[in-house]
Design a protein that fits this description.
heterohexamer, A: 4-stranded antiparallel sheet, 19% helix, 39% strand, elongated, B: mainly alpha, two-stranded antiparallel ribbon, 16 helices, 1% strand, globular, disordered N terminus, binds adenosine-5'-diphosphate
């Protein structure tokens, strides 16, 4: 199994979720993060002084998938999240040793 | 003389005039007649000015700090309101507005301590004296609350309490007496309709001194966090604006044309200053901000305050433009040139605004400049008197505030430890967190 | 007799006196003359008291609960305000203040249902009757809204609606009639200027009963979440405080010295109680909290309410100190000794405060203790009458509220399912979330 | 004729009548006497109506948008308030309420530009003219601020400024003159007590046109985000409600029974509409929402506005029910049938409500239906006049607003780039973020 | 060492934390996330229209543990977080290569 | 490649970001978390009762790095985030199987 982490632009969450669902992915976990990268932040103004914001709002998706669909998930993520502008984000793939469904105690592929 | 004082004398004057016409009819009661309409308006004004501090100013200031300190700022304002109210009853009012006898030039007496002798029937001009007491109390509340802007995010709560007690009694009360309570500045002819000197110059000057004594926040000036909630700032500013109708309009102490003109010029100055500030930001940064436009409005309000009973609508436009230009400049000056962390710009907005307005009053209060012409002096003469007022109040406030700071440093210290500053005053000084939103 | 009632009778008395002096001049109109100034002030007071509930109390309560329930609390207060307004027009006002004929001792009649016969020209004392109707309506709104504090975070919305309808008509309306509308308590000489009995004892008692019937929140008392937004609590408390000027000051039904003294003692009691509560917390926990100081202020306001037309400023200081000490103690008592989850401490703050104030009125309303001396009874005599008032209102409210709870349990149930309680009422009962802030 | 105008003429009429009785006594001053009580109430009303926009409406609207745009909405409202205030002084007031000489039917003159000739002593009816100026100014502020609801989350800030300037002068000012300032609609007998036509029909119509010209938000109508902060919506609605006492009650221009009845029917209509809207939602979705109940209240307030000086309490109940039913229907119609993204439902709530109220005024203002019977026409006749008013104001507003939009599109464009819309106006147009809460 | 990620229902955090502490776990890191899975979200209503919410509030626990106690931690998590209703969540186990305590520079098991 | 997770004190974020940037790190993802550990929380007071807060605000940094700089990144993190007071936090290192840049589809070291 693989543990896939994707950092994407916040407003791409809905299309990405839909694309993944179409692929048969049944679960994922999402959180709000701040990204630092090549894409530059904005300027905030406060009573005559400008402050630069280094961090931009990003959305992080985590999903555990079976090895078989790893490639398709990564590809789907990459396609659905792409705007072709700087700051589109990354997909990271880690090995997942075990997964358990809390409700039933099922493990492995069954748990996803 | 302020129009406030003028109003209070008016019945007496009228009384005199009327005695000549119909002596028998007015002999007993004319000078001391309660006016229900005026009472209704000043009761309302009192509520409006209380709203300025609770929650107006508290929100305005609370939104400007980091999220970890917002509750501490609300706490400062709330506690100050409570403490000042009690002190005002105990002795503040009496010392400010009571008769000081031989030292009346400098300070009032204690005959009205605990509102002694002031019953339901007691009058002050055409108002129940309790109403005048309460209206003035709301001014005494907001002035030390304005100083909060200087010391946020790093002061000990005990120091806030001690500072407020000492500063109210040793700075606010004497200055109020000098200008409005029968003291030397009023006698000299200083015109301060609603508190340019008494409220704004005192709080601005004190803010600067306290901020210097306390030292800047970590990271000042370049790494200070921007306001954590500009929406709260706007809510606070809106309530300050609405409440200012009571502050300036109520200072007429009557529901009449003077009150009407006062709220008109007050409003126009605020609006003009806000638009001007917005334009400056738009031109300089390409982005007009909400904090900016509201700060402009407050600058316009503070600046017109001393003049609000003396100038006309066109004068108000001038006040508004000047307020925004000067206060905008002052913000940068204090922060980046003088490098004093008067954190929420109390000196730059209130102090500078109040002083500017006090001086401009001499000019735009004159009929030649569309004013109501209530001064008997020439423009230059009045300007001189106003300048004396500014210098005296500024100097006195600076010296006494400095002494108070030194005393507090000796007694309990002014500033929290680094760790507390980093983690925030809310949790460390008050055991509370502002946003448990999930 | 309340000063409110006193005021309403005053013109008649005056009329009588004046008839002796100048019968021809006053024969037709004196008793029924509209006073514009009083009308202006009571119109304003009505707006101020509405502000107390919308949004004042709603925010005060909303900030104290978990983030998942804040909207439900705002919804409760808003819906209650709307429902009570309609009921007040339909029959509430008439039953409370209309003439009940032979049963007037217990309840008014229906002649003024739908404001029948009350046109633009109708007067109540010196006020248009519509203004008196509206002013009283804002009291009828806030009383059941105060009960919200007992049942937050676990009640069904349908039960809130049903409870409000029944409780308003079966508890609030009769008690208001007894005390202010010509009923037996007023006739007996009970003094309740602005609602110590009618508002605070009724809501506090009802809160305790409802909380018991409903059962505690999951985890009560030790694992209950602290307030999710003390800043909202402070905003609400500030608006309650400002609005209370209309609540107590307006209860003079005139813009005069009585109103001035009423807002003075109201304010001083609030400030003193707040400082006292802050001091207790500082001493006991080392940290004064924002929720604490605001709770103190509300305790001071509730406690002075019945007395606000009778006591003097020094009495107000005593009221404030006593209010904080007793209510602070009562909070712990109800929560940890009686183990009743009156969630936002309605009984401890409003009920206990209101009852205490009602009793203290007998003492501090007497001239011997700096009061205005409006009672014709001895202090002990008045104290007895006040005690009867407290016991009667408390007992009546408890019994009727209990019956109402049983009826609702039978009809639709009081409490949501566990799952709904856990996930929060906002999303489950109202389909909304409070903070979609990113 | 509006009751407002009626009131302003009343002293003159009274003067005429009184001259017959006691000519010598009233010859000089009766028509021009300042009334302190009325002044007190209209000063208060002015503060209340300002509170409606700052911060009331700003919060109401701000809570309804996404978190990334809340500051931009507050900014729109604040900037509009400031800009309109200045324009109102410069020429708006004069053109609306000044004498237009030969073209007075269509527009006023410039004699009162910059309040020329309007000193402290100038009167308008029984009020200082400055007070009347200020009271009317608060109406001029809120009307373009209401239009904000149409264009949130996607408009350029420059376009907001330009639109406000043009629309105030070319739409609001003429319509105000027609109805209230001595123009043709008022002369024809149109009854619009507090702005059903002048405020609500104009803003509603303009909203629809602007929304169409601007195009919908991304994802409209199905993927639009729900309100980010219903709590702010409720706070804003509460302040709007409280402020509406000044809006409608102040439109009586006196502290009397007319004001009392006006706030009564205003309040009852709001409460009834709120309960009705809640019931609809409860029935249809199983969950009554906070945004729903507050929207209902606003619909009830907007609908009763033109009628608030003419109808009685039972009429107000009918207004409330009708307001909720019609406005609820209109929301769905505009959004899902007409597919126009009038984002915060300005047309559906204010436009439709205001027009409905204007028409119903003819019926429920008649004594036969419990009204005050101030019209001299038959019900049908008055209905015809009211209909002409609605059609004329709607048509005129639509055409001029369309032209203004076209001009702005040509000059600077209406809409921000996609990227800015996605990231939000707060950071991109104003360089600020609303919630830095950790 | 193992890096364990658990997605649980928010109100189960307290019992889970207690159960883990009883087991001897000395540290963990918690964050608020939004979950998408078999459990369906609620409906939100806005002026006459219904909107369905796909994401539900969940709590994510991350904890690094020594290999020896991996099994017991997973078991404890599963037991303490279980309500037996849909949406109870998952436990994921990843291999952890290294751990460092910032304060002291200790590494490996010492750092946990 | 390695996936490095660091839990630090919130106010150390700025110095840490600067130190990492100096090292040549071009991207990272940051989120707000609550930490439970040896460092004890504070007490909250609510109307006469004290409640202890177990969780403290912490900041989590995630960054994917090439194997070559792993050591230097961990060292830099450890140095820059250290205040030498309890609660300074941890650095965790996991193996990263794959990384993709969404915008371009680049993979591996190129994607970072
Ligand atoms: N090495 C990294 N480790 C973890 N997250 C990263 C890394 N590099 C970039 N990110 C995340 O990806 C987001 C986008 O990266 P950025 O360099 O701005 O644009 P792009 O993805 O187009 O190259 C960043 O905001 C950050 O959240
Ligand atoms: N494949 C997955 N990868 C990551 N997180 C998941 C995955 N599947 C489910 N989750 C998380 O677990 C939560 C519960 O899953 P759900 O399918 O609703 O119920 P259950 O755990 O009872 O099967 C989801 O809300 C989501 O946060
Ligand atoms: N085993 C662990 N797994 C995950 N996070 C941990 C673990 N131990 C500690 N942490 C995180 O590190 C933070 C600091 O740990 P703590 O024990 O308080 O101090 P120190 O790092 O100085 O030993 C905790 O608040 C928690 O967020």
């Amino acid at each position: 199994m693989k543990y896939i982490i994707a950092i994407i632009k916040p407003f791409m969450l809905d299309p990405v979720r839909e694309a993944l669902t179409d692929l048969g992915v049944q679960g994922m976990t999402v959180s709000e993060v701040k990204g630092f990268g090549r894409q530059k932040g904005h300027t905030e103004i406060y009573r005559g002084a400008e402050y630069s914001i280094d961090f931009l709002p990003k959305t992080k998706i985590e999903l555990a998938v079976a090895d078989e669909i790893e490639d398709r998930v990564v590809e789907t993520l990459q396609k659905a999240a792409r705007t072709e502008k700087i700051g589109d984000g990354k997909v990271f793939v880690l090995d997942l040793k075990e997964a358990v469904r809390i409700r039933t105690g099922e493990t492995g592929g069954e748990a996803l | 003389m302020s129009l406030g004082a003028f109003k209070r004398l008016l019945p007496a004057t009228l009384f005199g005039v009327l005695c000549l016409i119909a002596p028998e009819a007015f002999a007993q009661t004319a000078a001391a007649k309660l006016d229900g309409a005026n009472t209704a308006w000043i009761l309302t004004s009192t509520a409006l000015v209380l709203l300025m501090t609770l929650p107006g100013l508290a929100l305005f200031y609370g939104g400007l700090v980091r999220a970890q300190n917002v509750l501490s700022v609300l706490m400062h304002c709330f506690a100050i309101a409570c403490i000042v109210s009690v002190l005002w009853l105990v002795a503040g009012y009496s010392l400010a507005f009571g008769d000081g006898g031989s030292v009346n030039k400098w300070i009032g007496g204690l005959s009205k301590a605990f509102l002694g002798g002031v019953g339901t029937g007691a009058l002050s001009g055409t108002l129940p004296e309790t109403v005048f007491f309460m209206f003035q109390m709301t001014f005494a509340i907001i002035t030390p609350a304005l100083v909060v802007g200087a010391y946020v995010e790093r002061i000990k709560f005990g120091a806030v309490v001690l500072f407020t007690v000492l500063w109210l009694m040793l700075v606010y009360v004497p200055v109020a007496h000098w200008v409005w309570g029968g003291g030397w500045l009023g006698a000299m002819g200083v015109q301060d309709f609603a508190g340019g000197l008494v409220v704004h110059v005192t709080c601005g000057t004190a803010a600067f001194i306290v901020a210097r004594e306390l030292g800047p926040r970590r990271g000042f000036p370049r790494e200070v966090q921007p306001p954590h909630a500009p929406g709260l700032v706007m809510m606070g500013a809106a309530m300050l604006w609405v409440g200012w109708y009571g502050f300036n309009g109520g200072s007429a102490l009557a529901a009449d044309g003077a009150a009407g003109m006062a709220i008109t010029v007050t409003h126009i100055s605020a609006a003009t200053a806000a638009v001007t500030w917005m334009t400056i930001e738009w031109t300089r940064h390409g982005k007009p901000t909400l904090v900016g436009i509201t700060t402009g409005a407050i600058a316009g309000l503070a600046t017109i305050t001393p003049a609000s009973g003396f100038v006309g609508p066109v004068g108000a436009i001038v006040f508004g433009i000047v307020a925004a230009l000067i206060c905008y400049g002052a913000v940068g000056l204090v922060k980046f040139k003088l490098k004093v962390d008067d954190s929420l710009d109390v000196l730059a907005v209130h102090g500078v605004g109040g002083a500017t307005g006090t001086l401009l009053t001499a000019v735009f209060g004159a009929t030649a400049f569309g004013g109501l012409g209530l001064s008997k002096l020439s423009i230059a003469g009045q300007l001189g008197v106003q300048a004396i007022g500014v210098v005296a109040v500024l100097g006195f406030t600076a010296v006494v505030t400095l002494i108070i700071c030194k005393v507090i440093k000796a007694v309990c210290g002014l500033r929290v430890e680094d760790e507390v500053e980093i983690e925030g005053l809310d949790i460390r000084s008050h055991g509370e967190r502002a946003y448990l939103i999930r």
